């Protein structure tokens, strides 16, 4: 049942190109428009939405953080992403023009369920992004967009995360489409790129041997830090979460712009720091700022592990280890940048003798608070 892999996690990492393609299937028509008929919230309601709030936990929350960048950019509707466990105890401001998106692989996470119940009581419309057919969260929502990752057995979420991202992009683009925002042309291009992204994920998977080797070489470290900016920031958080839960190491993700506000004090000789570098095209200002961050931490002794777009030579002089990923539009980069971090965490866990599919103290579905 593990299909020749030692662990479900390895199998599920390898299944990601298909999971991503399956989640797109039937949702982009021949003319390149989105057809999300299954989102039963009427277009007239979606046009009136004046605020989007995303609620989720753990890895699903990281997908939601990335969705915020996409939704605000493509739709110009204000969007907040919040931990479900914080949201529902905070007396949030919601009304009938608020669209709440609940992201959950299992569809059974108690905090996310309670958050959506609270939102519906306040009159908000709730759209679930979920992987498990007929589970509680989609049953209690106004509408559901299923991710088609297939069953995810390993406790650590991998293919579900990538498909959550795809579903979030689809919702963001669909909102942009029905609202006719000024990014019309860009939306068309992104839809095209998104429909090809499975191939890029496949390409990344084919280049992971050096990442595994690097992971093994770090097995006796105590700490790994992760830096990112813009959509690379949630990717850094996700890389750190994977490492905590699988390798039981101290791992922390930071927004690179925050370095000087504290985290840089953690940089000492030989501490591994993974840096997710945005594309040098697009938001090039951010790219250049991150390259300076890499220089700064390296000057203080950090061992830099740099994830950057293929052909981005500006990072080469400062990368102790370079992990190249394919070119993608900035907002879609998490789909390819996360994959090496999953492989990295899985290999480190194995090297440390940990049980990859069943990390200690964790459950696949958290149905208690
Ligand atoms: C991490 C992980 C957890 C889940 C979180 C939410 O690898 O799997 O952080 O993402 O418990 O679970 P769902 O998506 O089922 O609501």
TrEMBL record:
GO cellular component: cytosol
GO biological process assignments: carbohydrate metabolic process; fructose 6-phosphate metabolic process; protein N-linked glycosylation; UDP-N-acetylglucosamine metabolic process
Enzyme class: transferase
Gene Ontology MF, one: carbohydrate derivative binding
Subcellular location: Cytoplasm
E.C. designation(s): 2.6.1.16
Top-level taxon in the UniProt lineage: Bacteria
Recorded catalytic activity of this chain's protein: D-fructose 6-phosphate + L-glutamine = D-glucosamine 6-phosphate + L-glutamate
Annotated keywords: Aminotransferase, Cytoplasm, Glutamine amidotransferase, Repeat, Transferase
Subunit record text: Homodimer.
Summary of the function given for this chain in its UniProt record: Catalyzes the first step in hexosamine metabolism, converting fructose-6P into glucosamine-6P using glutamine as a nitrogen source.
Protein name, as recorded: Glutamine--fructose-6-phosphate aminotransferase [isomerizing]
Source organism (scientific name): Streptomyces daliensis
Covered range of the whole protein: 247 to 615 of 615
């Amino acid at each position: 049942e593990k299909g020749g892999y030692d662990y479900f996690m390895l199998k599920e990492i390898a299944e990601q190109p298909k999971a991503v393609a399956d989640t797109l299937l039937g949702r982009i028509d021949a003319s390149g428009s989105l057809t999300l008929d299954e989102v039963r919230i009427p277009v007239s309601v979606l046009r009136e939405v004046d605020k989007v709030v995303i609620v989720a936990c753990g890895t699903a929350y990281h997908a939601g953080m990335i969705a915020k960048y996409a939704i605000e950019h493509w739709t110009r509707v204000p969007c907040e992403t919040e931990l479900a466990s914080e949201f529902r105890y905070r007396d949030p401001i919601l009304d009938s023009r608020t669209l709440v998106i609940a992201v959950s692989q299992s569809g059974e996470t108690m905090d996310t369920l309670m958050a959506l119940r609270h939102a519906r009581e306040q009159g908000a419309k709730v759209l679930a992004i979920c992987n498990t057919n007929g589970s509680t969260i989609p049953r209690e929502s106004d509408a559901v967009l299923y991710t088609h990752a297939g069953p995810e057995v390993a406790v650590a979420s991998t293919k579900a995360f990538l498909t959550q991202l795809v579903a979030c992009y689809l919702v963001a683009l669909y909102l942009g489409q029905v609202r006719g925002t000024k990014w019309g042309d860009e939306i068309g291009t992104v839809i095209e790129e998104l429909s090809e992204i499975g191939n890029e994920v496949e390409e990344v998977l084919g280049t992971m041997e050096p990442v595994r080797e690097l992971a093994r070489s770090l097995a006796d470290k105590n700490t790994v830090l992760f830096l990112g900016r813009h959509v690379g920031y949630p990717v850094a958080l996700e890389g750190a979460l994977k490492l905590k839960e699988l390798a039981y190491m101290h791992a922390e993700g930071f927004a690179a712009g925050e370095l000087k506000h504290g985290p840089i004090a953690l940089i000492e000789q030989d501490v591994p720091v993974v840096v997710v570098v945005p594309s040098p095209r697009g938001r090039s200002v951010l790219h250049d700022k991150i390259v300076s961050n890499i220089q700064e931490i390296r000057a203080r002794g950090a061992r830099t592990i740099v994830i950057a777009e293929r052909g981005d030579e500006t990072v080469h002089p400062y990368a102790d280890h370079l992990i190249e990923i394919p070119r993608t539009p900035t907002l879609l980069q998490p789909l390819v940048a996360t994959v090496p971090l999953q492989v990295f965490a899985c290999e480190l866990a194995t090297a440390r003798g940990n049980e990859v599919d069943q990390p200690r103290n964790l459950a696949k579905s958290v149905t208690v608070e």
